[in-house]
Amino acid sequence: MNFKKTLVVYRKETLEVLRDKRTIFTTFILPVILYPLLIVGFNSLMMRQTAVLEERGATLAVADQINTVESQNLLKEIRQIKNYHLLPYTASSQELYRQKDIQAIITLRDSVAADGLKYYLISVQYDKSKELGRMVYSNLKEAIAKQEKDLQKAYLNSAGLNPEVLNLVAIKEVDTSTAEKKMGMFLGMFLPYIVIMMLVAGAATVAADLVAGEKERRTLETLLVSSVGRQEIVFGKYLTIITLAMLNVVVNLFSISVSLKFMLANQSKDMAGVQMPLSAILILLAAMIPLATLFSAILLSVSTFSRNMKEARTYEQPIMMLAMMMGFISFLPTAEINNLWALIPVINIALLFKAVMINEYTLANLLITVGSTLVLDVLAIWATLKLFTTESILFRADDDSSSLKAVKKDKRMFFNPYYGLVYFTLALVVLYYLGGYWQLKDLFRGLMQTQILIIALPVLLISRILKLNGKETFRLKLPAPMEVVLIPFIAVSAAILVALLAQLINLVFPFPQAYVEMLSKLFTMDKSILRVFLVMSVLPGICEELLFRGFLIRFFEKYGAKTAVVISALLFALFHLDPFRFFPVLLLGLLLGYLVVRSGSLYNGMLSHLINNGLALLLTTFGSSAWLKPLLSKGDNLHFWLAVPALLVLSAGLYAFHKVTAKGDQACAE
Amino acid sequence: MIKVNNLSKSFPKKDGSQFFAVDGVSFEARDAEIVCLLGVNGAGKTTTMRILSTVFQPSSGSAEIMGWDIKKNAQQVRENLGFLSGDTGLYNRLSGREFITYFGRLYGISDSTIAQRIAEMAELLNMNDFLDKKIEFLSTGMKQKVSIVRSIIHDPPVMIFDEPTAGLDILTARNIVAFIRQCKQRGKCVLFSTHIMREAERLADRIVMIHKGKILTEGTLEMLREDSGQTDLDDIFVFYVNQFTDETEVLAHEF
User: Looking at CA atoms only, how far is residue A368 from chain B in angstroms?
Assistant: First the structure.
């Protein structure tokens, strides 16, 4: 790659973006005027509001049913509150209260109890939903408390006791948090959210312009025929987006910190002069860089994929929504960064941000956050490069998602990636809501209904409606005898490896207790082992294979068999809605996809899937039996040495399978 | 020097079959020669030129620009090539000078050389009044002049013009036509595409007729007149298209 040319592209793009009035407005002008307006304006408005309320005062109706010196004293006290007027309670008082002409009605009563003490009951009728009502109540409470103290003192005095007994216990507040930390807590809640939003919004505007915009203005071809390479173009544009996104963040942070300083100076004394520590700002900016690179790469690939800016902005929306929701986690008071959260993009930065603000984070958090973000980053930029060198994407002419009408005419059109993703999303939503509801009602029945009604039935219905050749579409070809012999070896060894991987993940990131309990509930249903086997192995083996390896994989085959296998495995892993098992399930999906595509027989996948699930069931059910003991360490965990024979058997099995199926489906994976 | 040998480009259709936009095309264009790729819209002219300028990869066949292979030496091909089309967009927020300088730098030319060439061309094309104005404020004719200078800033030996006058008014189009002639005078090899017969008639040393991705015929205007027995280029073109359609129809009947 020619770095000099990358710089040429970068400099030109930055110059051009900075000449765009919209960018100038959203990057510089908006943040500079927004925060002072928000923070200072809101603050002064609040203070003014209180002042206005105090000025306005209140009118109260009093029904003094005691009418002694004590009650008169209390009313005198209340009259002394600035701008407070007292009216005697009359028949029309309630009406006046409803009309809001008087703000509260006070009723004074007393009673003499058996112990000879005189008790007072003061009822205050007011509207708590009104700012004025709340203010009146708090003023009254203060006046009443003062009066009570006087009464108590007088009583004690008359009884010949020291009135100081009322002050035997004093509370002294010792707050170890510094003013900085208090502010850090407060900023840590909302800053990550704002900064992430600004970052994404800033990057999105620029990204849409840089590739989709060039397509729209018909300048892309000119650029491509110049002697600059596509890598250089991509990296030049990529750097531009990162720069502008970071610039946006810097300007925003600066504006926020200045506005805050101004606000705090006007507020309580202990917060005056407190600033956002510079070191925290610098760490935050540094932590935002990986996120900026990640979003820039993702948004650049979206822009490359889109035909015009409008389309790019549309595709950017869900990404921004997702980032927003993930950034929102900083508002949860209990969410704190740990090594598991640090693996999840956006969320990790939001939580790290929060931790940095109160200076409670570890180096491991920081490194994992940056590292995991960078890994995704590389993936995203690789995808952009790939898109940028795919002419069918770069010069995408018209919409390639064919209409349903066209599908009726030509069934081959149905199996395009767009419909595949739509179907998958629908299935996922139904699984989550309907399946979840069914399983909550009755786990066993629910699982059965989920497998048959949600996973398998719609596929069969669609196949029926479109009059597809099921045998051909779903690869319902009987496997060769040799394949059937090999499958158990492959499935068992793979299941062991997958289980070991899950154990390994558990070691590094221990599963939450609730999760473990939920899982074990699945395997220890109050049913006979045969029925559990049916619902945990047989049905998933048949139904899930039909959906993923029979149906969904077909939508992506135009990208080649390998890609189709990978995508179907990804969807398969996502479908389990379980972050802890994502990687194990993904690997299983890859294996099953390979077996089916390679042999051209879905039955191989079904058999393998059934054995895999059955094995897991076997371990949990018979884990304590003597004949399984040698394989298990503690509980139902497998010994890690099992990986060695499992790996050997799996490689041998796959090698043999590859040989046996050499004449079969030409496509192969892995 | 352009050499095109049995070049094909196919795109997948929605139903899974392949559509051949360019189908076994072969021709040559020598230095100091203007060759016209003549055909109706959708004949495969733009696709051919996009392959030659390495924007597209060919499905099969090969082509050379100044001896550089378009697949193996894409970078060198682009360095030896100037490309101009009628509907090229420009970066509106840059000035003409900045726009041209940007491309000059992308070709790796020194800033002083760029400045010198801009000065020469600006004098020649009468551009000094608007060279430093933002492109968004320029007229179509002015923009086209900026594009012309952009296309030749690296002084390439081969120029490719894809429908260079499409969408332009007569006066602007004349600028282009003059520019194409000039390129030839400077010894450059010129390939231009058009669907306008008069343009081909006036400019081309040789005409390559292309239809539905295939070459109908090629030769000088005189040779084509003689071969077809027609005088008007319109009639000559229709003659060859009919011949082609008959042939394919006959082929279709045979199977």
Answer: 38
A638, amino acid identity:
L
Q: What is the pLDDT of residues A361-417, one digit of tens each?
A: 788 888 888 888 889 889 888 988 988 888 878 887 655 444 555 555 566 667 888
Which of B102, B110, B133, B158 to probe by mutation at the A interface, max A CB count within 10 Å? Answer: B102
Q: What region, left, alpha or beta, does residue A233 occupy, with left being phi > 0 and alpha being psi -120 to 50 degrees?
A: alpha
- Contacting residues of B for A5, CB less than 8 Å apart: 105-106, 108
Q: Give the tens place of pLDDT for each residue, A70-100.
A: 888 888 888 888 888 888 998 899 999 998 8
Count CB atoms within 10 A of the CB of residue A2.
15
Mind listing the pLDDT tens digit for each residue in A304-360?
989 889 889 989 988 988 888 888 887 877 778 888 888 888 888 888 888 887 777
Q: How far apart are CA A414 and CA A426, in angstroms?
A: 16
Q: Does A219 touch chain B (CB under 8 A)?
A: yes
Query: Is the complex ipTM higher than 0.95?
Result: no
**Which residue bears the tokens 């004719």?**
B141
Q: Which of B53, B78, B105, B135 to mutate to test the interface with A (most CBs of A within 10 A)?
A: B105
* Residue pair A548/A589 in contact by the 8 Å Cβ criterion: yes
Is B207:B224 a contact under the CB 8 Å cutoff? Answer: yes
Q: What pLDDT does residue B184 have?
A: 93
Quick one: tokens of A558? 């135009």
- Using the Cβ of B87 and the Cβ atoms of chain A, whether some distance falls under 8 Å is answered with yes
Residue type, B51: I
Listed by start position, the domains of chain A span 3-44+181-394, 57-167, 414-660
Q: What value does the CA radius of gyration of chain A take, rounded to a whole number of Å?
A: 35
| Helix and strand element counts for chain A (H, E) | 30, 4
CB A91 within 8 A of CB A63: no
Given this model, what pLDDT does residue B52 score? Answer: 94
3-class secondary structure, A659: helix
- Using a CB-CB cut-off of 8 Å, the residues of chain A touching B59 are none
Quote the CATH superfamily of domain A57-167.
Answer: Periplasmic binding protein-like II (3.40.190.10)
Of A13-27, A30-44, A589-603, the one with minimum mean pLDDT is A30-44
- Cβ neighbours of B9 in A, within 8 Å: none
